[in-house]
Amino acid sequence: MTPMTFVYLIAGLILLVAGAEVLVRGAAKLAAQFGIPPLVIGLTVVAFGTSAPETAVSVQAAFNNSGDLAIGNVIGSNIANVLLVLGATALIAPLIVSRQLIRLDVPIMIGASLVVYALAWDGSLSKLDGALMFAGVVGYTSFLIISSRRDKTPAEDDEFTKEFGLDEPVKPYAWLINLALIIAGLVLLVSGSGFLVEGAVSLARALGLSELIIGLTVVAIGTSLPELATSIIAAFRGERDIAVGNIVGSNIFNLLCVLGLASMVSPLAISVSPNALAFDFLVMIAVAIACLPIFFAGYRINRWEGLLFLAYYLAYTLYLVLFATGRPLAQTFGDAMLGYVLPLTVVTLLVIAARAWHKQRETV
User: Fold this and answer.
1) How many domains does the chain have?
2) d(Cα 249, Cα 247) in Å, to the nearest integer?
3) Residue 253 and residue 230: Cα distance in Å, rounded?
4) pLDDT, tens digit (0-9, with 9 covering 90-100), for 300-325
5) What is the domain range of residue 64?
6) Residue 126 is part of a domain; what is its CATH number?
7) How far out from the chain centre does Cα 174 lie?
8) Under 8 Å CB-to-CB from 209, ≥6 apart: which residues?
C-alpha cells in the first residue's frame, strides 16, 4: 500500500462531495427557472443529487467488474444513512417526521429493499434486474411529480425559494450558468468516483479485506457525506422534516436507481456475495423496517432514538471489522446481537408504536 492510495481516497471523497453540491445547486435553480414546482425539485433533484456519489461510485465499480464494491456501497450507504446520519442529526435536534413519509415513502423504501433482496436471491443482479429496478425509480419519480403538482402548497414554495435563492431577480443568461454548474458537477463526480474506486480497491488488497467490506464501510461512509451534510445543515436551520425526507428519498434512489444503473452497465451480471445475502441485506431491511415504529411514535425522532441508531451503527461496524480480520469473537458478537439485542429492540419498538397508536385513538 502506497501513500497514493490515501491520496486517491481523500481526493475522491472531496471531489464527490463538491460535485454533488454543485450539481444540486445548478439543477435546482435550472428546474425552478423552467417552472418545475419546488417540491418536485426537493424530492427528485435534491434526493438524486445527494445520491450522486453512490451512483458514480457503483456504476464505475460495476463497469470495472468490481461488483462487490458496487453492492457494498449501496447497502452500506443505506445503513449509514439511517443509523449514522439520522442518528447524528437527531442528537443535534429532535427531527420532525411528516405523515406522508410514514404513509408512502417509508413503506416504498421497505418495499424497494425487499424487491432488491428478492432479485439478488439467486446470487446475481442481471441487466434485466437492473432494468426492473430503474423502471421502479422512474415510476416513483413520475408519481411524485404528478402528486406534487396536485398538492403543492405556498409554504413549500417559500421554503425552497429561500433555500435555493429563487426569490432573487433572474440574471440574464442564468440558465447557461446553471447548465455549466450541472456539467461541472458531473465532471467532479465522475473524476471523484474514479479516484475513490481505485483507492478503495487498492486499500482492500493491501489490507487483505474483501471489496464488499471496504464498500460497506469506507466507501459507504464517504458517499454518505452529502446526506450527512444536508441533514445536519437542515437540522441547524430548523428544517427538520427535510433532514428526514432527504434520507428516505436517497435510500430509495440508492436501491432502485444506483443499483439499477450499475446492473445495466456492468459487462457481466453483478455477483452478490453469500455473506451480503445472509447478513448485510438483512441488516439493511431491518433498519428500513425499524424506521416505521420510531417515525410513527409522535412523528419525530428523539435524541435517545438517535443515540440508539448510532449505537447500532457502531455495533454493526465493529462486527464487520471483527469478521473481516477473522477474530473468533466475531461469531460470539454476532450471536449476541441477533439472539438478544435485536429481539429486545424489536419488542421495545413494538411497545412504543402500540402506545403511540393507542394515544392517537384516544385523541380521535
Assistant:
1) 1
2) 5
3) 16
4) 788 888 898 898 899 888 888 887 77
5) 3-363
6) 1.20.1420.30
7) 31
8) 203, 324
